[in-house]
Design goal:
globular; 397 residues; alpha/beta; binds NADPH dihydro-nicotinamide-adenine-dinucleotide phosphate; 9-stranded mixed β-sheet; Dihydrodipicolinate Reductase, domain 2
């Protein structure tokens, strides 16, 4: 018997709600809460009658969270609101004895910077309370950490080079849209690039390093080195890594729009005065851009996300590529959301299932690569994200 509380009713929340409701033997009671309750009600209705309770909560407000947690009494909360709410939700978990899972590391609203430091600082308090916090349990971060742990366990004695490759070869038919929350997405992709090499971080200009990479079933796509949050935990948890990088594909049209948005100041996160009222340009932009959760209907093509790894097995150098491809239309038919929401929401559900079934249960704050990868990998295949392995191939990186 496990009660789960989902916070956030966007694209990812939609997928988590569908997926959690699909495993009633694990999740016996479900509540979906968010800032706008009507959005929760729409999702609950789409999932089916009497499966999901809904509630309104402002997750920036610890008091409101505590009241909600006390009234529903969940075993675990799946936080798929925004990264700004990670700490308040963790505070409420500690206060009420609830376990925690999220898909994105904490970001302060006024600085475009994400890092695990502030969440890792909760480790001792979660440990003392006997509670589990699972950080970054979407696809990337999330499955990428599990893939790396799985690779080390089954195929390598040491991993030396890790390149995470994230391709979205989908077409949503809009001139410009982001695949998840526009504010968080634009903050992420416009920052300086950064990767790990020989024990230190190396910074680049935004999108300075790029090259075409071939993706399975897709072909070549220009891929740009960007900083991504799982690099921070992976270099800590796999100290033999000599280099760790993250690549993401962008189309020329997307990059042109992004450049214009930046050049005209619409990516700004500092409030400006407009007709006597303070507004944040990027938040205003979000209000006029397409809602990522509603891109699914006309989205064609697929995503391909994986880890390209070089290391040593039995004294010999070895290469290995593990990946998942996900078709936007398959995701839409099953949940009403597009592939990026789907590839995030499915691992979040599986992470919560790992906790409830006792397979990922330890007191403290952990990233996904710190748990047993095998039962998680089994569930990925069963819940819509099958993965594939290639051995001794040209990694191109
Ligand atoms: P959306 O913007 O579509 O949804 C966010 C939801 O959170 C909305 O329902 C929003 O409410 C709600 N919310 C925002 N602020 C609050 C608040 N203060 N209190 C309560 N609810 C709030 O985002 P996505 O669904 O696209 O993304 C969700 C999360 O998933 C993000 O953190 C994102 O970074 C992460 N993500 C992770 C990925 C991974 O692979 N690890 C990939 C993609 C996304 P309202 O509707 O009222 O605005």
């Amino acid at each position: 018997m496990a009660k789960v509380l989902i916070i956030g009713a966007g694209g990812v929340g939609t997928v988590v709600a569908h997926k959690v409701a699909g495993v009633p033997q694990v999740f016996t009671e479900i509540m979906l809460a968010s800032r706008t309750k009507s959005k929760c009600d729409i999702i609950a209705k789409a999932v089916g009658p009497n499966k999901i309770k809904t509630a309104q909560v402002d997750a920036d407000d610890v008091g409101q969270l505590i009241a909600l947690f006390k009234s529903f009494n969940p075993n675990i909360v799946i936080n798929v609101a925004l990264p700004y709410q990670d700490l308040t939700i963790m505070d409420a978990c500690l206060e009420t004895g609830v376990n925690y899972l999220d898909t994105a590391s904490y970001e302060p609203p006024d600085v475009a910077k994400f890092e695990y430091k502030l969440q890792w600082a909760y480790h001792d308090r979660f440990k003392k309370a006997g509670l589990t916090a699972i950080l970054g349990c979407g696809f990337d971060p999330g499955v990428t950490g599990v893939f790396t742990a799985y690779a080390l366990r089954h195929h390598f004695d040491e991993i030396h080079y890790l390149d995470i490759v994230d391709c979205n070869a989908g077409d949503h038919g809009k001139p410009f849209a982001t695949n998840f929350n526009p504010e968080i997405n634009i903050r992420e992709v416009t920052q300086r690039g950064k990767y790990w090499e020989d024990g230190k971080w190396i910074e680049t200009e935004p999108h300075e390093i790029h090259k075409p990479l071939n993706y399975p079933n897709i072909g070549p796509r220009e891929s740009y080195l960007i900083y991504h949050e799982e690099l921070e935990s992976l270099v800590k948890n796999f100290p033999a890594l000599k280099r760790a990088r993250f690549w993401m594909t962008f189309g020329q049209e997307y990059l042109t729009h992004l450049r214009v948005i930046q050049n005209i100041g619409m990516a700004g996160i500092k409030p400006v005065l407009y007709e006597g009222k303070e507004i944040v340009p990027l938040q205003f932009l979000k209000a006029v851009l397409p809602n990522p959760g509603e891109l699914g209907e006309n989205y064609t093509g697929e995503t391909s996300i994986g880890c390209r790894i070089r290391g040593v097995k039995n004294g010999k150098e070895k290469t290995y590529y593990i990946y998942n491809n996900c078709k936007h239309q398959d995701a839409y038919k099953e949940t009403g959301a597009q592939g990026v929401s789907y590839t995030t929401g499915v691992p979040a559900m599986i992470g919560a299932m790992m906790f409830i079934t006792g397979k990922w249960k330890k007191a403290g704050v952990f990233n996904t690569e710190e748990f047993d990868p095998d039962p998680f990998m089994e569930q990925l295949k069963l819940h819509g994200l099958p993965w594939h392995e290639l051995h001794d191939v040209d990694l191109e990186v």
